[in-house]
Amino acid sequence: MNTLRSAGINSILDLSIEADLDGLDLENQSPAEIRSQFNKSADHIADQISTCIETASKMSKSFAAIKITAMGSPLLLQQVSSTLTALESRFKHMDQDKDGKVTKEEFKQLVKMLPSPALNKDQSLDAVVDQLFKEADRDQDGQVDWVDFASTISLNRDETRALFLGATEGAAQIPGLEKEDLDDYKRVLVRMEKLCDQAAKTQTRLMIDAEQTYFQPAIDNVALHLMENYNNKPHVEGPLIFNTYQMYLKDALGRLQQDYVHAQRNGYVLAAKLVRGAYMVSERKRAQELGLSDPICDGIEATHTSYNAGVDFMLGAMTLQKQKLIENKASSQEEDASTLSLKTSPAVLFVASHNKDSVIRTCERMQELDLAPQSGLVMFGQLMGMCDQISYTLGQHGYGIFKYVPYGPIHHVIPYLIRRAQENASVLGGVTVERTLLWEELRSRFVAQKERAQIQAVPSPIVPTGPTTTM
């Protein structure tokens, strides 16, 4: 970390422990034993991440990375993701006129589809609907969109979590969760909140990594909950929690835009790290095996377009805010009222890319929009040991540049790095460029060294020491 900092590069400490469904040994174990095993493992890893946060806090501007699959059972996260996906699907189906909103009657039908459409055994369905719809209909126009619906009927809220409890009668159209699952999901939130409290106290930012699509809805649900609660702290300069968006997914841009709306309505800063994605091979294989539609963009150019659109959207949000600040400057007595900063921006962007064109394009857009490299509103990142020519150049020019520094048990770290190398085609393509640059640098140094040796080999002119005669 000290070596990187000397070159103007900051660090993201990455405890490279994640979980997947493959390789889970669940035979000869009861459900209670499986839950106990995962909870013990998650508590242990949370302690390790706490140490990671403590280490990162010793150097300002550093991050600690977190993988939510290490904070609970991957089986639980898959089940939660299935429930959330089904809920959004039913919402879209219920939206008959496709205006993105549902009426109170449609809202009622959605509540009826929940596994347990009652907040308590003594409350009628109509009473539940009246209470929840009033809360969700913020502008009181008699309609509710998905953002407000999902904010109101949420697994993150103690008041509504019971609505997702598995139905005891009939067949719910939205899959429910067992009480033990709801308890374990709450434990995931508690672990993360404890780590966020530590991060807030030490002024250390947390990067929530994206993972496989069958976990991502649950991960995003946790991330939004944390951003809503920690990206609005007045004593912390800038957002504390960053969520990651894999822009090679067809729905990534829509989710990014939707989350920005959620942030605006709930009064917090959306901090987004944009990556292309690292699970392309496994995601497409799974989709083919299960007969699902391919979630990944059709071709590299479509992925580039999606990535650029994500960058433009985030920069556009900053630009709109800057214009508002300028318009309001006349009515403000503060000298920096029109300055876009970490305290005034509604969004912060982290461009995590090994693609040279993406980095150059973002830098050019920053210059066009008059966003200073040192503002902290736009940052860049690459994996340690990859694309160093980009990282060090950005560091030399004062941009916020970070290196992911993976560490942990070798049997976790090596597979993690291999996956990153295998599944990131842009990195593999860049190896040829890096090799060429390294060779040119070595040749340049060799030639320079040879020229210095030749100069040193030339005899020095003899300088007379006796008296001289002037003619």
From TrEMBL:
Keyword tRNA-binding applies: no
GO cellular component terms attached to this protein's record: mitochondrion
Role description: Converts proline to delta-1-pyrroline-5-carboxylate.
TM region(s), chain numbering: none
Cofactors demanded by this protein: FAD
Gene3D superfamilies linked to this entry: 3.20.20.220, EF-hand (1.10.238.10)
Organism: Linnemannia schmuckeri
Coiled-coil annotated residue ranges, if any: none
SMART domains: EFh
Name the record gives this protein: Proline dehydrogenase
